[in-house]
Amino acid sequence: MAPKQVKGSCTLCGKECTRQGMTKHLEKCLHDRTGKTKAEAAPCFHLLVTARNSSAYWLHLMVAASASLKALDGFLRQTWLECCGHMSAFRSNRREVGMSRKLAATLEPGMVLDYEYDFGDTTALQIKVLGQYAAPVAPRKPVEILARNQNPHVPCDVCGKAAAVWICPTCQWEEQGWLCRACKETHSCGDEEYLLPVVNSPRAGVCGYTG
Ligand SMILES: [Zn+2]
Ligand SMILES: [Zn+2]
Ligand SMILES: [Zn+2]
Ligand SMILES: [Zn+2]
């Protein structure tokens, strides 16, 4: 069963919003907090990263314009994707964009980048450039989370009641693979040793991803 839309909270002010609501909120919240102290201003991009396979997973990010796509790739791997060092790529209008490119030389507001991790069991993401800001002080890290979806509640495929906490990679294709604690104990398809934990990522249940 696909996870439902869940909210997340703004790391700048704590306000809770849905993904779309957060886009609106951050436009104002960022505007109120940036661009006032021009002398120290560090150019940044506000990005919205979403998963192609589920609208429940999203990240609003602030990324330094001086960072490279490699840095963004590293962040996405660490936060959402890395299982066994698969290949990944950014594309703009279907053309691959090199990892060494700086964001400043690549992005502009309104642009959409496609991203894929693992060209076999692919996790596909879309990256929207929502805005460009002058951060009052240079960000401490090249990529910072402005907001992220909370853990989506996915009900168990078998009993339909309790929250799923394990995924059977074999049975999920028959929509019988997301299991609660109790139903995990009685699961006996023969592949129980390959169960994966339910984690807050669009890659939950894919390859060997454990979060
Ligand atoms: Zn806020
Ligand atoms: Zn893998
Ligand atoms: Zn159950
Ligand atoms: Zn199974």
Features:
three-stranded antiparallel beta sheet, globular, seven-stranded antiparallel beta sheet, 211 residues, Structural Genomics Hypothetical 15.5 Kd Protein In mrcA-pckA Intergenic Region, Chain A
Summed up, the helix count is: 3
Count of structural domains? 2
Tell the overall outline: globular
Order of helices and strands: EEHEEHEEEEEEEHE
List unreliable stretches of 5+ residues.
Answer: none
CATH class of the largest domain: Alpha Beta
Largest sheet: 7 strands, antiparallel
Are any ligands bound, and if so which?
A: zinc ion
Secondary-structure content class:
alpha+beta
Query: What would you give as the CATH superfamily of the largest domain?
Result: MM3350-like
Classify the oligomer.
single chain
From the coordinates shown, what is the CATH architecture of the largest domain? Roll
Strand content bin: 25-35%
Number of strands: 12
